[in-house]
Specification:
By secondary structure, the protein is of the alpha+beta class. The protein has three helices and four strands; from the N terminus they run βαβββαα. The protein binds FE3-S4 cluster.
Length: 105
């Protein structure tokens, strides 16, 4: 089991989640963060930190976000580790209330 970053993160990348992770499981892809499922210890520390509610446990993920389990697995193989929070995506204010963003990945 692991936690998963979902569609709401796309072009937001607030990164508040990163500082909460005790095992440095977050990876920074160009348009979203993902969680490496091989590293995540399922502690739930990151989930409440996200201002746009992008993070779910894989056991509770909404049906329309299930594909992000594979997206987190795939992108975490190549995206670099991120250890500390940074400034949000430059277009975060524009995209934070947009739900349909999968096509932007
Ligand atoms: Fe993304 Fe939320 Fe983290 S927007 S970078 S999952 S705080």
């Amino acid at each position: 089991m692991a936690y998963v970053v979902t569609e709401a993160c796309i072009k937001c990348k607030y990164t508040d989640c990163v500082d909460a992770c005790p095992v440095y499981a977050f990876r920074e892809a160009p348009d979203m963060l993902v969680i490496d499922p091989e590293i995540c210890i399922n502690c739930d520390a990151c989930e409440p930190m996200c201002p746009v509610d992008a993070i779910y446990g894989d056991f509770e993920i909404p049906a329309d976000q299930v594909e992000f389990i594979q997206i987190n697995e795939r992108l975490s193989r190549t995206a670099p580790e991120i250890e500390y929070s940074i400034d949000p995506h430059p277009e975060a204010e524009k995209y934070k209330n947009i739900k349909d963003k999968k096509h932007l990945l």
